[in-house]
Amino acid sequence: MKIVVLGGTHGNEFTGVEVINNLKSNPVNDAVHDYELIFSSPKSYENKSRYIDYDLNRSFGTDGKAFGYEKTRAEEIRNQVSGKFDFLIDLHTTTSNMGLTVILNYKNDLTLNAACFLKSKFPDLKIIMGSEDGSRSPFVGSLCSAGLTIEVGPIANNLVKADLVFTCQQMVEELLRWDFEEDFMESEIEVFQTTESYYYPEGNWYLHPNFDGKDFEELSPGTPIFINTDKEEKSFESEKSTYPFFINEAAYFDAKIAFSTSTKTTIGELKSTR
């Protein structure tokens, strides 16, 4: 099998770049797969910015919104990756208190089995099922029919933490050494199924300090989630509980996205609904 690993898709997320550079200097000699390493966005990395003209990880869909450097770079990566690899790993960091996380964009066996395998190696790992949009997806993961995004944090942009670099690199190396053939108790492996994004109210509102940082903890209806300078509160309005993540993610602040929501399911249930 052929695997491609990308780091630095966002230029202000340094962990993936460190992993790519480390693996170039010290190849995984006992890997059971052929693999290639791609430094996704050197220009935005040098600029210490998420992107130059347009978010690279929103530049691979069919909506035609990408422009400038990222449009050109997306086409270069597409030509390098599309149709040439069986599995794609994209390395990211988050400012949210999400710990060790993988995001899945497909429900196929390779992707789901890889998530199970990583969970067996890293018990604290959280698994998120993203939006499965196939070729319409704007994310770099759409270039392969199987793969996952590794998100590690919390960490501020433009910083490096040794433990996150080492853990992220270990996850990649474990996948490169694994034959993708193991069986797992899929009915017992928890997945957070993405439902929607939740936005800040109009006006000068903040995330409530009792809610901020509570990624993956159950959020019940009526729980205060926003507060303003007058100490007025707004509560979570819903008929059902949810499990929030990407709470107070810096990259989403300009879009007024406060957090994403999810429901709990299992790998086994995901396989049964394909």
Let me know the CATH homologous superfamily of the largest domain: Zn peptidases
Shape descriptor reads globular
Taking all Cα atoms into account, the compactness measure Rg is 19 Å
Tell me the CATH architecture of the largest domain.
3-Layer(aba) Sandwich
Task: Assign the CATH topology of the largest domain.
Answer: Aminopeptidase
CATH top-level class of the largest domain? Alpha Beta
Order the strands across the largest sheet as they lie in space: 2-1-3-6-4-5-7-11
Low-confidence stretches: none
Explained architecture:
By secondary structure, the protein is of the alpha/beta class. The protein contains 6 helices and 11 strands. It has helices spanning 14-25, 42-47, 68-81, 109-121, 162-177, 267-272; strands at 2-7, 34-39, 87-93, 100-104, 126-129, 147-152, 190-199, 205-207, 224-228, 233-235, 257-266. Strands 2-1-3-6-4-5-7-11 form an 8-stranded mixed β-sheet. Strands 8-9-10 form a 3-stranded antiparallel β-sheet, with no helix packed on it. The protein is globular. The two termini are 23 Å apart.
Quick recap of the structure?
The protein is α/β, with parallel strands linked by helices and 274 residues long. Helices cover 24% and strands 24% of the residues. It contains six helices and eleven strands.
